[in-house]
Amino acid sequence: MGWSVYRSGQARPGQELYTQKEGAFGKTLAISGCENNTSNYNPVSWWDFYGNQTPNLKFMAKRILGLTTSSSGCERNWSVFESVHTKKRNRLDVTRMNNLVYVQFNARLMNKRRGGKIN
């Protein structure tokens, strides 16, 4: 099971149950659990408890909820850009500079995959 489940449309029947609040999603506790977002509310636990009727939708929801919110990916790209865009190189045209950033970023990724340290 993976993202192809959603693209293939297999998660959509469960989506209708969810949006129409049918089955387990229509229970009073399920609805109040969504509406009363307190600090104790855990959406992953909610999907574990109420999502058994729609396993594909449950899988997708838990995957989405498990995503981290971070800017580290952008910061890595910015640091590569900053190393390329120095006073010495600031006369590069945009296309050439973008190509240089692309090459340096991918070189760092390949080095990381090999187990090396990223500079």
TrEMBL record:
Residue intervals of the HAT C-terminal dimerisation domain: 39-106
Domain of life: Eukaryota
UniProt GO MF annotations: protein dimerization activity
Entry protein name: HAT C-terminal dimerisation domain-containing protein
